[in-house]
Amino acid sequence: MVRADEILSLDQAIAIALLDNPSVEIAGLDVDKTAEDINAARADYFPQMKATLASTRNLVEQSYTFDEGVFGTFAATGPIPAETTEIDTSSGWSNSVGLSVVQSLTGVYQVMMEVEKLSLQERMNAETLRSELQDTAKSVKQTYYQILAS
Known about the structure:
Elements: H1 10-19, H2 22-42, E1 48-57, E2 63-66, E3 73-74, E4 78-79, E5 85-88, E6 93-102, H3 105-149
Antiparallel strand pairs: 1-6, 2-5, 3-4
Helix pairs in contact: 1-3, 2-3
């Protein structure tokens, strides 16, 4: 900061004006936000991975009986099943794990277009920031020279 007995230079005045200028801060934050949006959109280029875990338990014992040949008798194999078969369910816990990986092929083009749109938005926001910086500097220069002239 400048003391009261010092002469404020033009560069110091511009630096002070830009330091806490809300318009400049907002424009800078818009540039940063758009950059984050681009990174988030680029993440959609990669496959989506999902893992599921399930744990189940039978509350009631179940038993199934299949008689010999109930599903048919074929010349090549004979009766299915070959003999009377009984299937009992277990009374304990049953756990399962599912993993999936999904990559949308048609979505890649849409992601590419979204990234391009956000890149253009980022350039526009950068130009807005540059404009705010220049407008603030211009305003400070005009005021500075008006004070000097008086």
